[in-house]
Structures are given as C-alpha cells and as structure tokens.
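Quick one before lunch.
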Amino acid sequence: MKPALRTRFAPSPTGYLHVGNAYSALLCQQWAETHQAEYLLRIEDIDHTRCRPHYSQAIIEDLQWLGIRWQGEPLFQSEHMHAFRQAIDRLYEQKAIYPCFCSRREIREEIIRSASAPHQHDAATAHYPGTCRKLAAHEAERRMRIAPYAWRLDSARVRELLPAPLSWLDEHGRHHAVHPEHDLIIGRKDIGVSYHLAVVVDDGQQGITHIIRGKDLQEYTGIHRILQHLLGLPAPRYHHHPLLHDTQGRRLAKRDHSAELRAMRAAGVCPQRLRHFLLQECHGRWPFQSMEEVLQTLGKPG
Ligand code: GLU
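Model of the glutamic acid complex:
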C-alpha cells in the first residue's frame, strides 16, 4: 500500500549543490523518515537559459554521496512541458491570465510616465502597471500571432475567482491568508512557463502532500496556493525552514566554492560527518571560511 504522505526535494541545476541545498535535502529526508513518508527527487530544469545537464548529473551524484535516498527515478521537469502548456490553457480559459508583450524598458517607462515611481530605482522594483491587461481581446489575439509574449496573472480577475478567504497551511496547522496583489508572470516570454506554474503542476501530479523548503521561498507560497486553486489541485502543507548562514550572517550561496558538495567530496570530507554536523551541530550556521577549516572538522577520520 502506498504511504499517505509524500514530500520531495526539488533542486534547480544552475550550478553545483552547495551546503545550503544539502541542508534542505537533509531536513526534507529527516522529515520523511520521521513521518514514514515517501521522498522524491525532482530536477527543476525548465529554464534552459540557466540549467545545464551536467549539473543535473552532478546533483544526483552529490546527493547520493551525501547519503540522500529517494524513491523511484528522479523526475526531470523539462519533460513535462505539455502539462504546463495545458495548465496555461486552463488558466486562459478562466481569463485568469493575459498575454503581456511589454519589454522591461517599456514597463519602466510606463511606470515613470504614470508617476507612481518617480525615480529609475523605484521603477525597477515597482509592480507591473497592467498595460497589456487593458488591451482589447482582438488586439491581444492579433499581437499573439506576430510577437513574443509572457503570461501574467490578472490579479483583479483572480480576486473574483477565489473563494474568500483562501489560505495555505503551515506545519503547525496555522492558516496564512492569500491575496493576489499584482500581475505576476506565470509564463515567461523566453521559456513559456515559470517556476511558479511548473512547481505547482508537478507537486500536484506527483501527489506531494508536504513541502519542506527554505524560508526564501515562503513569499511565493501565496501565488502557489492561488494556482493550485485555479487548476483544481490539492493544497499541500508547507514547512519553510530557516536558511543556513555564513559567519557574517549572509545566506550561503553558490559563489562559496568551499561550501560546494562537489569540492568537499574531492577534498576528502566525510559525508557522515557532514550530515551529522548539518543536522545536529550547526544550528543554521556554516562556520567554515576555507576548505582547510572544513577538513579540520569534517575530514575523513585518519
Ligand atoms: N527549484 C527551486 C530551487 O532550487 C525549489 C523549488 C521548491 O522547493 O519549491 O530554489
């Protein structure tokens, strides 16, 4: 009989895994073991402008080296493009999204013109002013035949489509209310889909019941919940764990070479020690600033 609970680790192959990703993969595995849940691996490789197949392979090898064990074969998100296109069609039928032809420059200029953001800097962070939302249907259809476009969520229309109130649930059973506030991109101009849409469709298709991921993604959970609702998908529970930080209190990032799993493995780090250190000792802080320091504490016993 299939277990009722299922979680996943979903890295993007835009570089080698670093210790921050390892921390997330381990917390997710620990949760699965504690709850006797299934643990799946999904490679989120839809962005062909940034993802590389050799990083996908390296991620799989490095996770195996670390002692992460998942059920079944890893799922490659890029093989699911048809499912994402079907989801876009469904959202379009509901008029929950509209095509947007604007370039970044046009958006910036429009924001400045409308004086909602008087400075260049404000324009870069301001929300999309809804230019293409106002296009007549026949004009949008005409332009769709001749120009590239992104898909944006029509937040005003979505407010009509949502039951009030809509919320997502965290691991303590607390509800977080969701409000569609601006017209986010749901399908990118260059790749036709977005992280938000792909993650929601695949979590639904794979029957994921619990999502354990870093706090940096919590701000997107509202939009994920909205998409689940519009696409008729079940709502998983979310646990956003604190991120691993370096000695200066900055979050670990791909630029720190000595924090890459691949480099640690080549240098002779002991994966059991690394696992134990991350789960039991580090308390969210990666204290090492060089590979020498890493090896002093986590090197293979002698
Ligand atoms: N692919 C995403 C990332 O690497 C994580 C997706 C998720 O856990 O929702 O940041």
